[in-house]
Amino acid sequence: MTTRDTTRTASIPRPSTAAAPPTGIPFMRLAAVELRKQLDTRAGTWLLVAIALISGALIALSVVTSERGTLTWTSLVSSASVGQLTLLPLIGVMAATSEWSARTALTTFTLEPRRLRVTMAKVFSASGLGVLVSLVTIAMSALLNVVAILAFDADDSWSVDLAVVAGVALTVVLLVMQGVAFGLAFLSTPIAIVAYLALPSVWSILSLTIEAIREPAEWLDLNSMLATLSMGEMTADSWPKLLVALAVWIGIPMGIGLWRTARREP
Description:
- By secondary structure, the protein is mainly alpha-helical.
- The chain contains twelve helices and no strands.
- Mean pLDDT is 82; it is low at 16-21.
- Residues 1-21 are annotated as: Disordered.
- Keywords: Membrane, Transmembrane, Transmembrane helix.
């Protein structure tokens, strides 16, 4: 005669058959990782150092050479924006091409297979970094404006042209997005940088030298429109031209880049 030990069997926990629903990586975590990639490399670090040094030098040069009546906080911000508007878009280029140059795209897309989210995280982090650099530049301009007031009898008015400040910040974001777009379209850092610097400039030169295309070329001259935006001189007629130029110089390369990255093997 045998008996079964039912108490011992009942005490063994059974594994749950309901699996927890999969959760994706939060977008802000993706953006933070992409931001760290942009800051961890030597190229990214030295590019930011170069932007800071050039911006500081341009502000100091403006303090020394400008007429005292025209030396204001707004004028210092405008002077500093020249260097950052030229170099900050390169951060966007490197943010888009670093995965493919360093061959880390396989790791990134294994952790987050949705490539569009990764691309949007790159755009968000690079644009945020550009805005942060702009804010630091504005603070640096304020500091040197104090020096100009105390040492060079500059205008002690702290009024600032919000159209200029907002225009510079928006221009920085748009240029960084253009850098990301060209980086995605070419997936090669040197080629993307050359294309970003050369193609819009060549188009601007052609529009100035060939009279037959001068009027329609105004709708595709991104450099001219962004210069107007950064100076706070946008009018009702300028906004449609800016939108068309953005669609051509950011929208088209961004679309090509998204198509390429969606189909290219890491």
